[in-house]
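Structure ticket #2291
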Amino acid sequence: MLLVGVCLVLGWQITTVRYQPPAEGALSRNNATVVVADPSACPASISDGLATADIVVPLAEILGHCVRQSLAQLEQQGKAVILPHEWRDEFSTLPALKSGQAVYRVKVSFSTTPQGLWSLVLPTTGNNPAILVNDRLIGWGGSFQTPVARNTNRPLMFTIPQGLLIQGDNYFDIYVVSEPAATGFLDRLVIGRAEVLEASYQRYHFFRSTLPQIIALVVLVLSCAMGMLWFYRRQDREYGFCALGGVFWSIYTLDQFVVNIAGSYRLWDWLSVVSLGGLSLIGVFFIHRFLQQRYPRTEQSLLISLVGLALLLAVVPEAWFYGLLRFVAYPVMCFSLLYVLLFAAHAAWQVRSADLYVLVAAGSVVVLLAFYDLMVIWGFESLAYGRFLHFGAPFVLLAFGWILLQRFVRSLQAMESFNVQLIELNQELEARVEEKTRKIAQSYETIRILGQEQVLLHERSRIMRDMHDGIGVYLTSMLRQLENDTVDRQQLSHAAHHALNDLRLMIDSLGSASTDLPAMLGMFRTRIGVALEACGVDLEWNVDELPPLADFGPERALNLLRILQEAFTNALKHSSATCIRLSAKTESKSKGSSLIIIEVCDNGKGFNLEGRAGNGLKNMRYRAQKIKAEFAIKPSVLGTCLEIGLPLPNV
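Resolution: structure written out below.
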């Protein structure tokens, strides 16, 4: 409530701003005599081309003739008035004022002849004046061509040529043209030395003319900024309504400083009231969305009413137009703004939000100034002091700036809080990940140890099984022969040799050469060479450069060596061969697969494939299946060939 009270006091102080001449060195005159301008001598519209110097009848002569002809009737039709004087108050006594032209005479007496350069200040006038001092034109406010220049909200200062003011009575004649006539008036006259009046005139000119221009420009620029903000954040519709409302407000503010308008006065006044209507409508839409509430029927009804009123004002006759403005259009706009204020105040009372308090404070100033302007339109306040609704824009801009700043600060605080929480969560997550990583590493270590133990157990079991199936059989055979009374030394020797060869094969398969096939075949050649030499059998060795077998391992190596051992043993026992050839090479098959082909061929008596296969052949097939190798026996012209195909992984 304190904030609202302060804003209302500030708003009311704005409405009390008046032109304050210097306390010393200035003369203020309020007494004047007014007479309706002579229509035969005062044209309703004077061309701007008459202001040039190279014409037959210049503008100064036309205005001087108009004033002199009008003042000729001053004694019969003149009326003494107190300035500021408004025409709408005189229509009953001076109906001729409805023509929109009048001449004022103000008498100023000096006891001595004024020295130096003097000036005349008109704080306000409606709409365009021409000033004559002692029957000499000293200046005018602008174009007298319809539509005439609008100086209602612009102070005017005219320099009085030196020597024009004399000792005794001096007459200041002001010819005023106003359209419409109801807005015509003349404020008091202030005369004094030019250097004395200059500072006060400039201050009041800034307040009445320059400041509204600055307000309109700032509102328009900020509206564009709000529009860009809404463009990138379409979900925040209040920014879009704020931008559109700022555009309407800028258009409405043009009425305060535009001197030469385009089109007619009626069109300009229609544009002004439509922009004010758009502003009040946007205010309703904005406050509903700002408070996240929807009243579609209220908004639709208000939209239809304002659009209908705007269309009605565009088509009604001239005689009705300004009556509708005064008693229908402006009151509707003001009460729409009052609705926005009351709606926001009710929400602020319930929610207790600082943003709403600021918005209510700014809105209270806007409503105060709007109703003050309505009082001016209805005649309860003077036209001479102007309207003040446009001065509500800075309050609204400050309110929105504060709200946006608070939102920005809250967003930063929320972001900082979020970042702190995120850092804490990251630290907690890192701690959890570190703990989980440690546990996973422990699990992997446990699995690795168990895997190693499992491999050791598997390898131990395999070695024990191979020893049992190989060396164990031969040792058992030897033990039984030794337990008998008669010992066959030859069989005992064969069993010992077989056991020793089997042990050597197991040792070879356990070495690092289990994945290096050429090295493994080389060790096999060393082992089998003794037996071939003892039997007088030649060995042909044809082994190419072979790729390593990464996943071969000791078990598969042992099975391959036993297949080769069985193949050589069979050739030595049964084929009567004089030469055995071992070859190994790489062959490519279909679909990109490759094989290592190992062949064992002899030049013996051959092999009957249709006969019954013995245990040796079955064992070789079984071992080939265990190492996932292809196995085949191929008869040849001389002897027998055994082929083993080891698959290579696809590259």
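Closing remark: DSSP finds 15 helices and 18 strands in the chain.
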